[in-house]
């Protein structure tokens, strides 16, 4: 089906526009000219991957991108690609539903919201089809991507169709927070893991101790004995991903038991697999009865963070030990920290900054 002619006229250009990718305030290395992006050439040659109706929406996408780049010139090729990809996806979504595309129908709050809902549904389906232990990380990472995509296409839509019914404030996707275990959930989970034997028992104990004692999750759980430094009365420190993580005192004896039962240089988790699904496979071996909380490394890490916040550990030190580059996770989890009564809170705030 032919595409409607775009209901806007791209500005005429007499020469290709070259956008320098040199960052403001940076001096280029001697002997190297700043890299420039020929925007018009890039737009004219852009072909996306995974766009089912690309032949039907090509002209519209390229025309819309050209107009947007006149308004907001991209500073890098990656920025131009990200914008064109979102325009192409939105146009493809609208064409699949109606067989027509135009600025007034593609770049609207309703169309963008429908695409966002479709993507969120695909993310849930993907997470539901994955191993249970991996679902939280899939959803968490996916929601960050969805939020970025939504923000970008809303920005483009507002520029190209200001009358698109946009909210006064750009919509934001609520963040899904991986909650910590409650004390009762943790007790029942510990009991469930303790009922295992053999390799599943080792898998479960290692995930519990490294997650609750050091906040490790994902491939960081693939800790070898050589990464653990036992300092005696000063505790145990784990070297992981370029940072040193002190183990919570109440988990030191259990970690020492794991170290004693593991051959030098081997993984504490009990198997030597190190591929990207190794941790998920180890978690899946642990038998958890129906009704007991699932063993989820993400929730163990959240529990570790909350325990430190509740103990009053300073944020910079906690971020360093946790390998965090922003306070997002900490701010998300702060609501799970038990509140102090007014008198204790007042006393703490009054004494803040005094030498202890």
Structure description:
- With 356 residues, the chain is mainly alpha-helical.
- The protein has 2 domains: 18-160, no CATH class; 183-339, hpI Integrase, Chain A (Orthogonal Bundle).
- It is built from 14 helices and 5 strands.
- The strands form 2 sheets. Strands 3-4-5 form a 3-stranded antiparallel sheet. The chain has a two-stranded antiparallel ribbon with strand order 1-2.
- The relative contact order is 0.09.
- The model is unreliable at 1-16 and 19-35 (pLDDT under 50).
Key descriptive features of the protein:
three-stranded antiparallel beta sheet; 2 domains; about 350 residues; hpI Integrase, Chain A; single chain; elongated; about 5% strand; disordered N terminus; two-stranded antiparallel ribbon; mainly alpha; about 50% helix; 14 helices
Task: Give the gist of this structure.
The chain has 356 residues and is mostly helical.
Give the termini distance in whole angstroms.
75 Å
Low-confidence stretches: 1-16, 19-35
The major pleated sheet works out as: 3 strands, antiparallel
Task: Give the count of helical stretches.
Answer: 14
**Percentage of residues assigned to helices:** 40-55%
Main sheet strand line-up:
3-4-5
The third-level CATH topology of the largest domain is hpI Integrase, Chain A
Overall mean pLDDT:
86
Work out the radius of gyration.
26 Å
Kindly provide the name of the CATH class of the largest domain: Mainly Alpha
């Amino acid at each position: 089906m032919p595409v409607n002619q775009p209901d806007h006229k791209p500005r005429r250009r007499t020469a290709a526009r070259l956008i320098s990718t040199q960052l403001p305030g940076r001096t280029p290395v001697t002997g190297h000219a700043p890299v420039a992006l020929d925007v018009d050439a890039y737009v004219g040659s852009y072909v996306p991957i995974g766009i089912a109706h690309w032949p039907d929406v090509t002209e519209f996408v390229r025309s819309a991108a050209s107009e947007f780049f006149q308004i907001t010139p991209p500073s890098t090729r990656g920025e131009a690609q990200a914008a064109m990809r979102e325009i192409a996806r939105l146009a493809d979504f609208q064409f699949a539903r109606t067989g027509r595309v135009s600025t007034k129908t593609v770049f609207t709050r309703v169309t963008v919201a429908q695409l966002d809902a479709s993507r969120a549904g695909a993310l849930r389906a993907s997470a539901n089809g994955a191993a249970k232990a991996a679902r939280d990380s899939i959803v968490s990472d996916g929601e960050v991507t969805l939020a970025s995509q939504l923000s970008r296409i809303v920005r483009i839509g507002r520029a190209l169709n200001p009358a698109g019914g946009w909210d006064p404030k750009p919509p934001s996707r609520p963040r899904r927070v991986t909650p910590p275990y409650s004390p009762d959930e943790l007790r029942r989970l510990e009991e469930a893991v303790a009922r295992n034997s053999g390799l599943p028992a080792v898998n479960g104990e290692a995930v519990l101790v490294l997650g609750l004692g050091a906040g490790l999750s994902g491939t960081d759980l693939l800790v070898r004995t050589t990464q653990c430094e036992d300092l005696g009365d000063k505790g145990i420190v784990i070297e992981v991903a370029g940072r040193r993580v002190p183990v919570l005192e109440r988990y030191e004896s259990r970690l020492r038991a794991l170290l004693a039962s593991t051959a030098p240089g081997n993984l504490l988790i009990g198997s030597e697999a190190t591929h990207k699904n190794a941790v998920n496979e180890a978690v899946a071996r642990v038998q958890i009865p129906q009704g007991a909380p699932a063993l989820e490394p993400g929730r163990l890490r959240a529990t570790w963070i909350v325990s430190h916040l509740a103990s009053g550990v300073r944020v910079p030190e906690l971020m360093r030990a946790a390998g965090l580059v922003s306070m997002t996770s900490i701010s998300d989890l702060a609501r799970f920290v038990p509140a102090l009564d007014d008198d204790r809170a007042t006393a703490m705030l009054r004494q803040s900054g005094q030498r202890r």
